[in-house]
Each structure stands twice: as C-alpha cells, then as structure tokens.
Specification:
single chain; mainly alpha; Glycosyltransferase; two-stranded antiparallel sheet; 2 strands; globular; membrane; Terpene cyclase/mutase family protein
Length: 407
C-alpha cells in the first residue's frame, strides 16, 4: 500500500526518467501552504503522497464503519484535474493542471477506490477511470506515470480502481492485452529463487527478481481486488493447498504468489526491509502481505503475521502517520480482527486524530464550551490542533516505500 506508491515513485525517477526527462525535477514542486488544509490527514509534507494517504485514510475509516468527515472527502474530490487524473497534492486547486502537474496512476486509482466506496462521486470516478484507460500500456498494464513501463504495483492498484468503478478488469484491454496479461509477465516460475513471487519490473537485463510487496500487489490484482479486502466467514483456502504450480491463468498465479508470501513470513511472522543488507522488520510490507493472504482465505499465516503486527507496529504507525494506521486497519479488517483493539491500541481513533475532527466531536466540543461559558469556540479549535499535532510523523514517502525499489 504505502510501499506500492513509493516504489513506483522511485521507478518513475530511476527507470522512466530516460523516457520522460526530469519528470519529477523539472516540474515545480507543489508548494504546501504554510498551514496545510485542515481537511488533510497527517501533518507531513503532502507533495508526494497527499491524495494517496487521504484515500487510504478514507478507505480505512469506511471499512471500520466510520463515516469520514465531509470536509476530508470533499478535499480529495477537489484535487482532481480537468482530465480526470490526480496529482499527489495541489495546494491551489483554482489553477488548472498543466503538463508540469505531476499526475500519476497510483494517486488516481487510490482516489477512485476511496470515492467509489463512499459513494456519490460518480462523475469524479468516471473521469478518473477514463483517464486511466486512456494511458493503458500496450502490454495491458500501467506504470507510475503515463507512458512509463508497467509495474506490478501500479497495475494492481488500477485494477482495484476499475473493479471499484464497476468495470471488469479483464475486459479493459489495449492491443488485445489486459491488466492480467501484464501481471502474468511479471510472475516468477515455480523453480529457482523467489519461486511463485512477482517482480516489481524486470531489471535492466530483463530478469525478474522477487519483490514481496509487488507480490502482495500482484495477488490482489490477479484476484480483481482493491485495497480493501472483505473478511471471509471462514478460511476458504487451506494453507496446505497454497502450492506453487505452473500458472495457467490469473488464479493460479495468485496462489503461487500467496505461497511465496506464506513461506517468507513463516519463520518470524514478518517481512524484512528491502534495503541492501538490512534485516529490519518491514511493517508496511507485512501488512500488505496479510491482506493478500486473507484475500485468498489463507487465514492461518495471515493471522500469525497480524499478531506480530499487533505486538510491534504501534510505534511504527505513530511515527509514520495516517497511511500506516490505515494499512493496519485494512489488515485487521481483512482478517476479521477488531482494529479498535489492536494490541491494546484503537487504530480507528488514532487515525481520526491525524485528520479533521468528526462533526460529532466538533458539536460535542462546542457544547462543552457553551456549558463552561467560554462561548469563544476555543475548545473546538484547540481539540483540532491537538489532533493534527498527534499525526506528525517522519513523512510518508521517506518512511514508507523508498526502500522497496529493488528490481
């Protein structure tokens, strides 16, 4: 999830840069206003991830049965460009998007998923899906930016957007190729290192190298699922049946990928950082893997890793911010766990504290002020300020996905 977007950013710089010179450098950096929008989740610089983290926050709240504040939803919808695409952050939406506006597939697809889940934004999501279809690559997939080489993460998040908007991903084709064809080309065979996994992209020599987060994305994509996976009433896939076999189609390739994730998680219950030589636990990738396993009904390994996250991820989420809280909520939701009692932490409450106060909380605070005779509304805004300060972290881009671009 957060890993997917950052890996794609780096791919755009390192791989796509040759095809689209200085796409990230020549465009003026979005200039966040000194006071970021009160409707935005998190206090970190939204230049690279504003729409992405907002979308995840809204999806997580909706999955947890919480109605997100209207201001937060309106802010997200208002970030759309006239052609339907989304950039990570537009500080001044009164200015039209132009060729230098850094729009991308990941922000756009995530926004579609969030707004479709909440309902009432068919015009916005329809335009966004139209833009995504217009830039589909000839291999059937998508890269992070328009015209960039297809990667597993971007292709999968777009599949989720198509499904959320009511399209059948297998029928969205370019040159006779569907998104599933693009993902299957990134699947490793069942022999050798990384058996059954997915690569983010082929390396410079065309070799496929296993990438855990790309694998989690590939599993969800080939199953036609988005960022939110509904919990199964009971396990529909015995873990013993997660056996890597020659993929005859999307479903078997998804099983192969899940088998790879299960084996990678087996020893410690978590994945490790993709940074060279690092053995640090990777909380974000582990949460992604939990969702992917749950999507196939592999509940035993999914719950084992969720238990590890319950014991170890609270500090990481507090430092990282709203997208991390959202990832953990979505992992808990996919396995049928309670995100309000996540290792003693109420993830839903903590996520809400990084964004605008809910209308009910505002009303309660105002009522409290009235009773105390203050009449100034200071209590409401003090509460909002505390909520925003609570969300300060080290930054979504830096802490999340930068380390995953290791094709």
């Amino acid at each position: 999830m957060n890993v997917r977007r950052c890996a794609a950013v780096l791919a755009a710089v390192a791989v796509i840069g040759a095809a689209t010179p200085a796409a990230a450098d020549s465009s003026p950096s979005p200039e966040p206003s000194k006071a970021l929008p009160s409707a935005l989740y998190g206090d970190g610089d939204p230049q690279y991830d504003g729409v992405w983290r907002q979308s995840l926050a809204l999806l997580a709240q909706d999955a947890a049965g919480v109605k997100p504040p209207k201001a937060a939803v309106d802010w997200l919808a208002g970030q759309q460009c006239a052609d339907g695409s989304f950039a990570p952050y537009r500080a001044d939406t009164s200015r039209d998007c132009d060729a230098k506006t850094p729009v991308d597939t990941n922000q756009t697809a995530a926004a579609v998923q969030a707004l479709a889940a909440l309902g009432g934004h068919d015009e916005v999501t329809g335009k966004a899906v139209g833009w995504l279809k217009s830039i589909q690559n000839k291999d059937g997939g998508w890269g992070y930016t328009a015209g960039g080489p297809s990667d597993a993460n971007s292709t999968s998040v777009v599949i989720g957007a198509l499904a959320a908007a009511g399209d059948k991903p297998a029928e969205v084709t370019k040159g006779g190729k569907s998104p599933y064809d693009a993902l299957l080309k990134l699947a490793l065979p069942c022999e050798g290192d990384g058996a059954g996994a997915f690569a983010f992209q082929p390396d410079k020599k065309g070799k496929l190298i296993a990438n855990a987060d790309a694998t989690a994305a590939g599993v969800l994509g080939l199953l036609g699922k988005g960022l939110v996976v509904e919990p199964a009433a009971k396990g529909t896939q015995d873990t013993a049946e997660l056996t890597c076999e020659k993929a005859g189609g999307p479903e078997q390739a998804a099983v192969n990928g899940a088998a790879y994730l299960r084996d990678e998680l087996a020893e410690d219950g978590h994945l490790v950082s993709a940074l060279g030589g690092s053995e640090q636990p990777d909380h974000g990738n582990t949460a992604d893997a939990v969702v992917a396993l749950a999507a196939l009904g592999a509940t035993e390994p999914a719950k084992k890793s969720l238990a590890w996250l319950e014991k170890n991820a609270a500090g990481w989420a507090e430092q990282t911010g709203p997208a991390a809280y959202a990832q953990l909520i979505l992992a808990a939701h996919a396995t049928g766990a309670d995100p309000r009692a996540f290792g003693g932490v109420d993830l839903v409450k903590r996520l809400a504290a990084t964004g605008p106060a809910a209308e009910q909380e505002k009303a309660e605070a105002a009522a409290s002020d009235a009773e105390s005779g203050s009449g100034s509304g200071f209590g409401v805004w003090w509460y909002v300020g505390v909520c925003l300060i609570a969300g300060i972290g080290i930054g979504f881009l830096i802490s999340g996905r930068r380390k995953r671009q290791q094709p």
